[in-house]
Amino acid sequence: QHNIKNAMYKIRFGYHNNQGIHGACPVDLLHALYLGIFKYTRDSFFEQIGKESKTATQVNTLSQTYGELLTRQSDRDLPVTRFANGLRTGKIMAQEHPGILLCMAAILVSTEGRRLLAKKKRHFGTNAQKRDWSFLVETLLQWDRWLRSTEMEKSHVKKSEKLNRYILYLLKKVTNRQEGMGLKVQKFHGFTHIAKDILGLGVPLETDTGHNESGHKGTKTAAKLTQRKEETFDLQVAIRLEEVELISLAMAEIDGKLGQYFGKVQQENAVSIPKNARGALGGAIYSIELDEDTQQYQVKLTTKVSGNEEEKLEKDLVNFLFGLQNLVKDSIFQLKMYSIHRRGDQIFRGHGKYRGKPWRDWVIIDWGSEGPFPSKVYGFIDLSSIPTDFRGNYGGIPLKQGIFAIIENATVDEVEENEVKSEIFIPISLEVGIISNNEVTKQMFYLADVEAILQPIAVIPDLGGPPNAYFRVKDREQWRLDFIYFLENNLDLYEEISDVESTDNSS
User: In whole angstroms, how far apart are CA 383 and each of 338, 401, 429?
Assistant: First the structure.
């Protein structure tokens, strides 16, 4: 680095500060946060594990598993978490770094992840060290959601100046970055000024370059299709861009998606079907049929959906369906279980093998006086045709006309003092009948009216833990609200960090 006298130093760009050119160039979330702080955190995490170590490979594999599990959720607000090569290698875009940290947070809180990290006693040997890492990663995710708010209270911004410095201290202490200049970089220092930048220039989204950067994608793709000769490069890029645009318009017109063409409506008689007019039930359909020879009920897949493969249903689920069919046989000769329920634009799935892997959504169900509980969906049953005077109880509820979800119920666990506490993951336990040899050998199913479904949620298993142990992932809006809670309550956050001093990684 060289100390030079910049011609811009004496120019004042606004009355809100005296920082000159530096005050006019605020911290950019895309480059400073995602390609700076978040990237440093990921790199330091694997640096402390050992980049080429066997443990790093195992942790990376675990991240791929959690990335896939986080993707197959009915809560679609989660960041991108599916990375073909895991977290260590491969081309990762700036906007995907929150997903990297979310996978890291899942590893740090899971039983298997803590077991693997405990092998590296120098940096992860104690619960306090693992908790420091977990606290750092989750705080960064909450911080990111708050910084990306469309509006902020002025009082919160002023209070954040102190909290921002605390986060930087936490980052420095936990990561102990040794690569390059460590954390003696502008991307780190710039966040000490971000509160003043927000007060002077507005929320960080006003100065974020993410949307401008995304505009380069088409041009970059077109550039790869040229001969890459200097004298014809510009012309060939322009031609490729025009060709892509014309092909896109042609495909849209073929599919009937092009509403206007030279100002004229082509499909004057086209009727728009509102999305909520689609069928409420669909997907793969299973029927419960009576075998005349054996006089036993059988579950058969009666329809297939593109990309869906026939799966073998769990024995306890089949028995649950048999019992229900036997109860309503006088009203419904052939009961059917559907794998999809739609509510407007929201799709709830109960697939046992969707495109080769299970996709069973989790939801919050309001059980009335008993309160809301998380539940795992296995399918949907239409009981609309049973008589209004039908009398009978099944699956924990009195049966009536309507659409019902077949679910497993879960309860929220108490966190023990010696466990790694989390700000993003809530431990829950699935209600099961029997656990034998660390496997669930008896499941417990219930029926719940689909009208009692309050919201979709994201839930992942505690890999390496008890077979009925899971974590509910708080939605990203709650991450932002939790960060505001920190700001409003003036918590002594330095007490959250352990007294274990970080050591130099270079030795």
Answer: 12, 5, 29
Residue with tokens 């902020």: 152
CA pair distance 4, 22, nearest whole angstrom = 14
**Residue 249 to residues 220, 224, 241, 260: CA-CA distances in angstroms?**
20, 22, 13, 11
DSSP letters spanning 193-211: SHHHHHHHH-SGGGS--HH
Residue 335 identity (one-letter amino acid): L
Q: How far apart are CA 412 and CA 471, in angstroms?
A: 9
Q: How confident is the model at residue 248 (pLDDT cuts 50, 70, 90)?
A: confident
Looking at residue 506, what is its pLDDT?
A: 38
Hey, is 450 helix, strand or coil? helix
Q: Is residue 83 a contact partner of residue 64, using CB atoms and an 8 Å limit? A: yes
Please, is 464 exposed, middle or buried when counting C-beta atoms within 10 Å of its C-beta (0-12, 13-18, 19+)? middle
CA 226 to chain centre: 37
CB 17 within 8 A of CB 25: no
Closest by Cα among 28, 42, 32, 31 to 177: 42
Main-chain phi, psi angles of 433, to 5 degrees: -85, -55
Enumerate residues 6+ apart whose C-beta is below 8 A from 212.
none
Q: What is the pLDDT of residues 104-147, one digit of tens each?
A: 999 999 999 999 999 998 999 888 899 999 999 999 999 999 99
DSSP sequence for 464-488 = TS-TTEEEEEPPHHHHHHHHHHHHH
Q: Among 167, 154, 166, which residue's Cα sits nearest to residue 196?
A: 154
Q: Which two tokens stand for residue 188?
A: 């780190």
Q: Could you tell me the CA-to-CA distances from 123 to 173, 175, 231, 498 in Å, in that order?
A: 12, 10, 54, 12
Q: Residue 453 and residue 364: Cα distance in Å, rounded?
A: 6
